[in-house]
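ENTRY TYPE: protein
WANTED: fold as tokens:
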Amino acid sequence: MSEQLPDSFEDILNYHSADFSEIRVWLINQIDHLMHYDMERLKWVLYRIDINEKKLANLLKENTEEVAASEIIADEIIKRQLEKFESRKNTEKGEWSFDV
């Protein structure tokens, strides 16, 4: 039986000692689906998460190892969410709201 994914982002950080492999696989599958069936929604999600469009375009263009685009995007989402978490963790409680 597969273990349930954590509820909160803090739980995710502690999930399997910060091993994001299961979450990453799920995210890659979601991104792959959006790339094939709803590219506009994927763009909207990336905008809402605040993924740097130029940086992502360069990463995709410079992909010499032929890594799937959905993997590159998933990794950037995870990195960005961790950056935002760390930034917000260092801010006093109550000074921010979590939107995405």
